[in-house]
């Protein structure tokens, strides 16, 4: 009903016709990989390949075909050259085929939204050749790719392998988590306790003591005691209070210090940011959304009143501009244009330029004036979001759109706005930047401090560090700096500012052992930062053969010597990733399918996909990479800590599948090679340190300790601030089908994290209450996206079945009934 004049336009394509369209070489690859018995998805009852979509005027709308691995994820593990299935190929071939020859006759294609699949198909990693599938399927068809502005890393692949001209779209507005339900009650109790304590100090009464038990009970209901344990010292021992009642020996001083820490935790939780809903392409943010961007960017530096003033000022400028354009008097129009230019020029000035242009002294320009000018500029840039659609239309007309660096407002500032631009990344030869080097050093120091504190002063022999393209670009190389700092090395730059070598810091200066590093590279990092990979490889080789450094002070040398003694080639290999030209651990595909038994298998899936070593010593060909499973096995067996940096508010641990599928599975692979812990009877745990490098706060304060947390602590923070938060839930549900899908994805991720780390029972309890057992919420999800609701219930049942979640039989029975009803509804919709 909403697409007037729309009609279905579909084609039945035979395998013979597809072979002719693909040509001899590529059709041979398809037929070898997909026989008549294994035809893949998208095949009609008559054996024809179905290519279908909706025609609206001159626009043909279709859903990108599935790659054909759902339900068979293990296929990707054993087939390095994953050939797309016939129907996938037919979809693109018939898109290009002229209409007079029985095709769609497209003159351009718009890929709407990031994370398509055509640019990820097998082929050359840096530049396509004729045997690359993305080149074959896209051919000369202009590719307009609408891509998230805050993902410059993967957008490079869309350009390089998908021939895409990018049109960036903005991130959703931000929201603050706030406190809810029992958490809000706990905050009130703490405030009441603080006021009562102050009153008792004057009156001499002890009324505040009565509140201690209520606070303790509330904390236990929230399970905050896992994040802020109450510790009591008994001589030389320190014990954690776990009982339902507080011990009688608990003093006011100990309880007060603990209560203050709980208060600080609640403040952090209520102030955590999250993406509030989804972004609508080309829509100007509302006043409320504008305010959310400004408050997230400036924090307490900008009042709500000033936000309103900045928005009002922008609206006045827009009205003046509109009025000027509607006037018939040419002079007035010219004057309006000049004023608009002058206004924008003023907004873009730095503090120094503002002083100069106003001929003012530093004292006359307050910090508030500078902040307000920047806020006005941000509002103006956000107001240009309509250019997202304008740019698409411009490109369809053969026009040009301006370039912009990719990134997000909070981390990268106003340089990433306005959106609707052809985004790019950064110069890989200048990493790490000076700021990233300073922050990375501090992060490494804090990681080692925490490890030594937890292990009686012992340093980790090996630390695994994930190197991803996205966080590397957005942080200007902080994760690289962490690797260098752990090893005890520093970047050396030439006169142009480019990094040419990573020098080893002398042990006398370092003052501690060199920590060995297993560098886990994403496929994008491997392909986009080949120069960094070569420099790191050279550094590890030199560290492995460093003279006059004993093994106990150089763990790289120690492990390399042990491998060399066993006759292993390239014992200094430390940079591991997927097979050449291939991407992903496939752990998320396995988890999504549910086709796995023991959690240990997920670690082995990761290992099987990441045995390839890279670097200048692996050969100089573009597709160089050598499988070195023995070296990887050695590094995993000695890994005592894993490190992951998170670079943005939008993509947290619980928001996307890749974190558990890569870093979580790497942690599990390392644990698989550990001995049994005598106290638990299970394999020894390998801690995972998370660094939230969002910018601001202690990360920018060089004197403050960096917030490096264990993964379980970060998971609890994220679940409380987002998935379990009614505010986040309701915002997502309001987005309709897309919001329901996002909820569903996070439920799958819970299972992934529970399999590779630890997820608290209360997370499953409250997720069930919020999304499945709440009748009103369940109806909304079922209405907007039946498949998403079915997956929500499915993941809860799966968690219970796998022993990840302990709940009662009544709850399980309710969930089974809901799943049966959801299954019936999906069947009806499909029919």
Describe the structure in your own words:
- With 831 residues, the chain is α/β, with parallel strands linked by helices.
- It is built from 34 helices and 22 strands.
- The chain has an 8-stranded mixed β-sheet, with helices on both faces. Strands 1-2-3 form a 3-stranded antiparallel β-sheet. It has a 3-stranded parallel β-sheet with strand order 4-5-6, with helices on both faces.
- Helix 10 packs across helix 11 (304-326) and helix 17 packs across helix 19 (478-487).
- The longest helix is centred in the N-terminal third of the chain and has 23 residues, at 181-203.
- The chain starts with 6 loop residues before the first strand and ends with a helix.
- 44% of the residues are buried.
- The model is unreliable at 71-78, 343-352 and 357-363 (pLDDT under 50).
Q: How do the strands of the widest beta sheet line up side by side? A: 19-18-17-16-13-20-21-22
Helix percentage range: 40-55%
Number of strands: 22
List low-pLDDT spans.
71-78, 343-352, 357-363
**Averaged pLDDT:** 87
| Gyration radius, rounded | 29 Å
Distance between the termini: 19 Å
Overall shape: globular
Biggest β-sheet: count, sense, barrel? Answer: 8 strands, mixed
């Amino acid at each position: 009903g909403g697409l007037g004049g729309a009609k279905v336009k579909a084609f039945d394509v035979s395998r013979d016709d597809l072979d002719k369209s693909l040509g001899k070489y590529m059709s041979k690859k398809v037929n070898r990989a997909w026989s008549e018995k294994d035809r893949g998805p998208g095949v009609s009852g008559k054996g024809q390949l179905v290519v279908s979509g909706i025609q609206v005027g001159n626009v043909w709308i279709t859903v990108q075909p599935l790659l054909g691995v759902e339900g068979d994820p293990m296929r990707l593990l054993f087939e390095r050259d994953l050939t797309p299935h016939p129907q996938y190929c037919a979809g693109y071939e018939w898109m290009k085929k002229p209409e007079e020859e029985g095709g769609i006759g497209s003159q351009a294609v718009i890929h709407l939204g990031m994370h398509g699949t055509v640019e990820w198909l097998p082929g050359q990693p840096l530049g396509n050749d004729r045997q690359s599938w993305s080149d074959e399927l896209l051919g000369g068809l202009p590719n307009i790719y609408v891509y998230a502005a805050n993902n410059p890393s993967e957008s490079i692949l869309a350009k390089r392998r998908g021939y895409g001209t990018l049109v960036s779209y903005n991130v959703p507005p931000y929201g603050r988590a706030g406190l809810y339900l029992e958490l809000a009650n706990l905050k009130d109790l703490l405030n009441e306790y603080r006021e009562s304590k102050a009153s008792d100090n004057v009156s001499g009464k002890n009324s505040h003591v009565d509140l201690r038990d209520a606070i303790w009970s509330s904390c236990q209901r929230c399970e905050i005691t896992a994040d802020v344990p109450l510790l009591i010292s008994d001589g030389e021992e320190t014990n954690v209070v776990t009982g339902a009642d507080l011990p009688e020996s608990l003093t006011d001083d100990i309880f007060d210090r603990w209560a203050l820490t709980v208060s600080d935790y609640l403040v952090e939780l209520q102030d955590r940011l999250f993406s509030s809903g989804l972004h609508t392409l080309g829509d100007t943010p509302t006043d409320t959304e504008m305010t959310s961007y400004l408050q997230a960017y400036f924090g307490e530096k900008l009042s709500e009143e000033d936000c309103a003033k900045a928005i009002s000022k922008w609206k006045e400028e827009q009205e003046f501009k509109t009025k000027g354009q509607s006037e018939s008097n040419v002079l007035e129009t010219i004057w309006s244009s000049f004023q608009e230019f002058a206004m924008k020029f003023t907004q873009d000035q730095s503090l120094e330029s503002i002083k100069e242009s106003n001929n003012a002294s530093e004292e006359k320009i307050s910090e508030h004036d500078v902040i307000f000018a920047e806020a006005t500029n941000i509002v103006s840039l956000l107001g240009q979001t309509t250019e997202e659609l304008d740019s698409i239309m411009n490109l369809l007309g053969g026009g040009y759109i301006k370039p912009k660096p990719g990134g997000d407002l909070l981390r990268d500032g106003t340089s990433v706005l306005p959106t609707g631009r052809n985004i790019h990344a950064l110069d890989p030869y200048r990493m790490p930047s000076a700021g990233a080097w300073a922050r990375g050093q501090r992060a490494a120091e804090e990681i080692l401090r925490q490890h030594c504190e937890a292990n009686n002063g012992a340093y980790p022999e090996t630390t695994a560090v994930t190197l991803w393209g996205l966080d590397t670009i957005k942080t200007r190389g902080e994760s690289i700096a962490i690797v260098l700092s752990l090893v005890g090395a520093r970047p050396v730059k030439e006169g142009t500012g480019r990094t040419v070598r990573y020098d080893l810091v002398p042990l006398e200066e370092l003052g501690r052992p060199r920590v060995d590093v297993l560098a886990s590279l994403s496929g994008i990092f491997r392909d986009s930062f080949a120069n960094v990979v070569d420099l790191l490889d050279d550094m590890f080789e030199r560290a492995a053969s460093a003279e006059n450094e004993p093994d106990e002070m150089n763990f790289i040398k120690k492990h390399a010597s042990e491998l060399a003694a066993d006759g292993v080639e390239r014992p200094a290999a430390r940079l591991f990733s997927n097979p050449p030209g291939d991407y992903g651990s496939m752990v998320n595909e396995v988890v999504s399918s549910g086709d796995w038994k023991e959690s240990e298998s997920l670690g082995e899936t990761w290992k099987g996909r990441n045995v390839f070593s890279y670097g200048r010593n692996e050969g100089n060909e573009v597709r160089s990479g050598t499988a070195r499973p023995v070296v990887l096995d050695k590094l995993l067996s000695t890994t005592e800590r894993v490190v992951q940096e998170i670079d943005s508010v939008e993509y947290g641990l619980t928001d996307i599948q890749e974190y558990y599928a890569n870093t979580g599975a790497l942690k599990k692979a390392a644990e698989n090679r550990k001995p049994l812990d005598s106290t638990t009877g299970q394999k020894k745990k390998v801690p995972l340190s998370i660094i939230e490098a969002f910018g601001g706060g202690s990360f920018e304060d060089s004197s403050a300790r960096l917030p490096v947390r264990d993964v379980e602590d970060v998971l609890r923070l994220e679940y409380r601030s987002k998935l379990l938060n009614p505010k986040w839930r309701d915002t997502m549900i309001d987005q309709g089908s897309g919001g329901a899908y996002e909820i569903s994805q996070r439920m799958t991720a819970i299972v992934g994290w529970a399999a590779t780390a630890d997820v608290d029972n209360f997370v499953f309890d409250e997720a069930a209450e919020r999304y499945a057992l709440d009748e009103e919420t369940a109806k909304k999800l079922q209405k907007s996206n039946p498949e998403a609701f079915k997956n929500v219930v499915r993941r809860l049942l799966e968690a219970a079945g796998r022993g990840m979640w302990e709940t009662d039989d009544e709850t399980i029975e309710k969930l089974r009934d809901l799943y049966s009803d959801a299954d019936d509804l999906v069947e009806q919709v499909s029919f």
